[in-house]
Each structure stands twice: as C-alpha cells, then as structure tokens.
Amino acid sequence: MKPLSGHWNGPSDKPASSTPASLRDHGTPGHGYAYRAGDPRISVIIPTLNEASTIEDCLGQFGCDPRGSSGATGWVEPGGRGDSGGSSGPAGQDGSIERESPGGTGSLEILVVDGGSEDGTPEIVRSCPWARLIEPGTRGRAVQMNAGAAASSGDVLLFLHADTRLPVRWRALVAESICVRGKAGGRFRFDIAHAKRIYRWIVGGTNFRSRFLGITYGDQAIYTTRKAFEALGGYPGIPVFEDSRFADLLKKAGGLDWIDEAVLTSARRWERRGPVRTLLLTWLLWLAYTLFIPPRFLARFYGVVR
C-alpha cells in the first residue's frame, strides 16, 4: 500500500509486498510465536486531526475498505462474515498464506478518535465497515487516546499514529510480549519511510535512545494491557511528551518491552521543517521538558503535524 500523502519513499529494509500486513501469516514456520484463539483481544486506537491524506491507507493495513458499507461495531471479524477465523488458503512456496482474514479470530478492534478534523477524515472513517469513529469533542492526543481507551473493549490497547504502519506479525509479537514475557506493555523498533542517509542516522539514533535509554515516543506504537492502563490512570493530560511520560510509567508498572521489528512512519514530520532542524528542535524540547519547563509552553514550539 502506498499512502496518499506522498511522503513515503519506501522503507530501507523491507521487501515490497502487495498484501497488507494484517492479512499475512502470523505463524509461518520459522517465525516463532503465532497469534491464536484465546490470545488477548486487541483494540487499536488511532488519534486523528485532519488526516484525510493518511487515514485511508492506515485503515487499509487492517483490511478496511473505505468504499465498503458503514455501520460496523469496530470489531474486525474474519473475512467480514463472523466465521471461525484462520487463513483461507494454504501457505504458498514463499511461506505466506494466500489471504488471512483481517481479524484472525475476530479479536481485533479498530477505533479512530478524531479531534475535530475539517478535511473529511471522519467521513472516510465512517465509510470503513471495520472501523469505529469516536468524536470526544476535544482535541489533543492524550485526551483522544484516553477517550479511545474508554470506548474500547479489548484486553490490550495499542496506540497507533495515522501515518505509521505496523510490521507483518505485529499481533503475534504483542501477544508474545504480554502472554509469554508477562510485560505490562511495550513498543516497537522505529523506522522512517525514506532512504536518504540522514533519515538512516535519525532511525539509528532513535532506536538507540529508546532501547538503551528508555526514551520512547508515540510513533513506536506503544501498547499496554487494559489493566496496566487503568492502574496508571491513562495518558497524562499534557500537550507534548505525553507518550514518553506514559512509557516511563509503564516501566514502573511491569516493564516496557522492546519488539525488534520495525513500525514504519511517514517522513512528513521531518520534511516539514527539514530533518536536521526537526531533530534539533526535538532534542531541545526534550531537554527543556526534563528541566521541568511546563509542557504547555513547549507545545507552542512543537506544532501539530499529525
């Protein structure tokens, strides 16, 4: 899938595929843990604000067809028919199955929480039969993500930016993190959909910072159990770095896991100001945040990109 925004130049380390990630095999031999019936139900919560250029493709990775009929509950059922799940065909010679149902076992819930878009984002979401639109009436990622969590019913909550794509086996990886390693939550390795060397440096620095220093941002697709989320009181009500603070809270609540498969994020945030300026601004704002400069003051410089 190629997003409509025009800010995707292809991942640097992923082979191209015509099959959406969520429709491919999560348990191919040699891939380790396989998602299966009885694993936690997952609610994917996507905060949006004027994301008409990205939300259609974002929903597409879960098998949502915005041209389909509306009126769905938000739970993805196998093949959209409510049957028993599983793949619809045997594994091919390359190890992939012909077409796996988007929900696997009907255990995937998609919620888009819109902060008042004026570009048609809500209409696109309403046209997707497997997505549920939440409109809390207040913008702000923390507010929107908390509203999505309150409206969801999954055992595990995964918070996804509209310009970010999950890896092929993301459900199996999250289930393994929660069920096998017993973590309260975690995040994925980070990548940018741009091949220029400067972006490769940013990716390397970001992953070092996250994996070894524990500094985590929301474009790494943070996930958590509902129990841990509610115990922590949800995302802190601050306008910037709410994702980092929540990740810090997760560390203390039972460990913040690292999944060493990458989520792929559009380069648009770096292209807007330029990659070097954006990186320097982020570092300066983070330093100011650690020095207890009020987040509402820092939000003036951060800007709204997604």
Total of helices? 10
- Helix proportion: 25-40%
CATH fold call of the domain at 39-83 and 101-269: Spore Coat Polysaccharide Biosynthesis Protein SpsA, Chain A
CATH class (first level) name of the domain at 39-83 and 101-269: Alpha Beta
Q: Globular, elongated, flat, extended or rod-shaped: what is the shape?
A: globular
Our Rg estimate from Cα atoms comes to: 18 Å
Beta-strand fraction estimate: 15-25%
**Biggest pleated sheet:** 9 strands, mixed
Quaternary structure annotation:
single chain
Q: Provide the CATH architecture of the domain at 39-83 and 101-269.
A: Alpha-Beta Complex
Number of DSSP strand runs: 9
Please tell me about this protein's structure.
This protein has about 300 residues and is an alpha/beta fold. The chain has a domain at about 40-85 and about 100-270: Alpha-Beta Complex (Spore Coat Polysaccharide Biosynthesis Protein SpsA, Chain A). It has ten helices and nine strands. It has helices spanning about 55-60, 120-125, 140-150, 170-180, 195-215, 225-230, 240-255, 270-275, 275-290, 295-300, and strands spanning about 40-50, 75, 110-115, 130-135, 155-160, 165, 185-190, 225, 255-265. Strands 1, 2, 3, 4, 5, 6, 7, 8 and 9 form a nine-stranded mixed β-sheet that branches. α9 runs antiparallel to α10 (about 295-300). The longest helix is centred in the last third of the chain and has 17 residues, at about 195-215. The chain is globular. The two termini are about 20 Å apart. Mean pLDDT is about 80; it is low at about 1-5, about 10-30, about 70-75 and about 75-105.
